[in-house]
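Final report, closing paragraph on structural work. Over the funding period we assembled a curated collection of sequence-structure pairs, and we close with a single example.
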Amino acid sequence: MSLASLRMPLGVPGYQYETPAQMAEALALQVAEALRGAVSERGRALLVVSGGRSPVPFFECLARQELPWGKVQVSLADERWVPPSHADSNEALVRRHLLQGPASQATMLGLYHPAENLDEAARLAEQSVAGLPPIDVLVLGMGDDGHTASLFPASANLPAALDPACPQRVLAMQAPGAPHQRLSLTLPALTGAHLQLLTIQGSTKLATLELALQPGSAEALPIRALLRPPLQVHWSP
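Its predicted structure, as stored:
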């Protein structure tokens, strides 16, 4: 199976690469071009990314791009509710692999805030992103279960987070069976991005994407809520 064999929604292009390294390099070039364009047009750019192991090669390729990094703000599509000093922190991952060298001039806006409970942490995160402009570039991944950002099937707040009219940009989320509670941008915050890129690797996730392209509910496979223009899908084996 390949992207070419999938019936993508009208207006959603799919790009296939021979290796993850090729995909990382191509994504870095595309994202850098979009960020330059945003800085040229509006004097600043907002890049929002996800964590996990898969984006690391992309982060390292992007860090090597020539950009007006001092005018770029980097934030997160989701975060585990752990401090940046924790090994599982997405913010720590981005700082370690992207905000290096000249890219260290970019401003990092994390989602984690210490609080008495997760709902309070989500409220504080909501306050921190409330003044942000629409996202210029959004780079998402997808899990084998069809989650993206931290929009997990069976999470209590998932219906609210997937509501196109959700007034919040950040909600508390729970990944069933995972050790850490989560914070996630909601669907309106994600789909408001100018350039939306979904990156996936391997045959298992390609099979999940194929399933998500079939009729069904977004609550069963949350990625379904984003499989529409202007999203682009990028895949490598």
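The longest strand covers residues 195-201. The chain has one domain: 25-215+223-236. We thank the funder for supporting this effort.
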